[in-house]
């Protein structure tokens, strides 16, 4: 049986012990603060606990599936963690079942109708999961257990929950390392939240000219992070070109930031995809580009739509959704 501490960065091995002939074992260790720990028999067979130095925790479980069968005594925090993670696990299993039905029905002539029904069921499950998470956080705002599930709430739509949980944990566990890490995350999310000014970008064009993002203030701007090597980006480019050509004379512009590392490939993609707007910039830093951390980019294509004052009004819009929002900001019926 292995014991790992789950830090904010990675799992750190703390101890291991062999069970006796009856399947019993005891782990003794010190912890300076309430912390997340994992007891495991294998990488995918484990339970999560929240441990502090004032508790003596007992649990029983079927060794074939620790996470699903464990029963814990002596730790209120761990009990809350179990309640939260078990509900999300049940939701995940239900979603997997829906996906299984979809895969089995691929050859069915009525696939479109089946897909419609499954999509509605999926949306309802997602809604129910969000209701559960919000209710759990509302009831247990003081608990580190909330940190295990809040990431399931999209922060752009639920920043108030992130801020409320941050405030509660900062009040109740101000010196806890998990609290401090979460506080940093909320500060970062708030910096890029809807309604806030887009952080300044001032990188060079392929010709070496610096174009600041702020130079486009006064226009509705699509801030588009992309790269020549990104297939989904290239697939979306024709739609961006169409919207640009339709609305460029009505106050719309595009500011394209490439995560390329090969200048020739970047320039060729601009030409091949007919990206005719002038604001193309990059530091050719690939995933080490300064904009990745600045805008908390985890994948591309990634877009921010900015109003005429340079404030973020939407993220991740594509296709028809993007055009509708552009028209709204430009005041076009």
Describe the structure concisely for a colleague.
With 333 residues, the chain is α+β, with helices and mostly antiparallel strands. It is built from nine helices and 13 strands.
Polypeptide structure, described:
By secondary structure, the protein is α+β, with helices and mostly antiparallel strands. The protein has nine helices and 13 strands. The strands form four sheets. The protein has a five-stranded mixed sheet with strand order 11-10-9-12-13, with helices on one face. Strands 2-1-3-4 form a four-stranded antiparallel sheet. Strand 9, helix 6 and strand 10 (252-258) form a beta-alpha-beta unit. It is elongated.
Q: Average pLDDT across residues?
A: 92
What gap, in angstroms, lies between the N and C termini? 65 Å
Shape: elongated
Number of strands: 13
Strand order of the largest sheet: 11-10-9-12-13
Overview features:
333 residues; alpha+beta; four-stranded antiparallel beta sheet; 9 helices; 13 strands
List the helices and strands and how they pair.
Blueprint lengths: L1 E5 L4 E6 L18 E8 L2 E7 L6 E3 L5 H4 L1 E3 L2 H29 L6 H29 L15 H18 L4 H15 L10 E3 L5 E3 L7 E7 L4 H17 L4 E7 L4 H10 L7 E2 L8 H5 L7 E5 L5 E4 L3 H12 L3
Parallel strand pairs: 9-10, 10-11
Antiparallel strand pairs: 1-2, 1-3, 3-4, 5-6, 7-8, 9-12, 12-13
Helix pairs in contact: 2-3, 4-5, 6-9
């Amino acid at each position: 049986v292995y014991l790992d501490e789950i830090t904010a960065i990675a799992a750190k091995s703390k101890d291991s012990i062999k069970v006796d002939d009856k399947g019993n074992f005891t782990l003794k260790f010190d912890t300076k603060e309430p912390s997340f720990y994992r007891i495991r028999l294998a990488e995918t067979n484990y339970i999560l606990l929240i441990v502090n130095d004032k508790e003596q925790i007992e649990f029983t479980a079927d060794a074939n599936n620790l996470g699903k069968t464990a029963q814990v005594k002596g730790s209120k925090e761990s009990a809350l963690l179990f309640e939260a993670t078990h509900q999300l696990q049940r939701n995940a299993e239900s979603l997997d079942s829906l996906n299984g039905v979809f895969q089995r029905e691929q050859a069915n002539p009525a696939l479109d109708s089946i897909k419609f029904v499954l999509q509605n069921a999926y949306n309802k499950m997602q809604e129910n999961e969000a209701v559960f998470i919000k209710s759990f956080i509302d009831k247990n705002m003081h608990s580190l257990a909330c940190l295990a599930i809040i990431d399931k709430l999209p922060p752009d739509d639920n920043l108030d929950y992130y801020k409320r949980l941050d405030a509660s944990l900062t009040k109740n566990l101000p010196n806890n390392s998990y609290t401090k890490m979460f506080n940093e995350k909320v500060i970062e999310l708030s910096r890029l939240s809807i309604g806030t000014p887009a952080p300044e970008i001032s990188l060079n064009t392929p010709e070496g000219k610096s174009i600041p993002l702020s130079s486009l203030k006064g226009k509705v701007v699509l801030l588009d992070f992309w790269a020549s090597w990104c297939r989904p980006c290239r697939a979306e480019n024709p739609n961006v070109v169409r919207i640009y050509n339709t609305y460029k004379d009505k106050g719309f512009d595009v500011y394209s930031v490439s995560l390329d590392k090969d200048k020739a490939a970047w320039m060729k993609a601009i030409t091949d995809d007919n990206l005719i707007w002038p604001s193309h910039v990059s530091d050719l830093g690939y995933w080490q580009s300064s904009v990745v951390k600045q805008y908390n980019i985890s994948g591309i294509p990634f877009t921010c739509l900015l109003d005429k004052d340079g404030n973020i009004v939407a993220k991740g819009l594509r296709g028809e959704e993007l055009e509708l929002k552009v028209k709204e900001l430009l005041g076009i019926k």
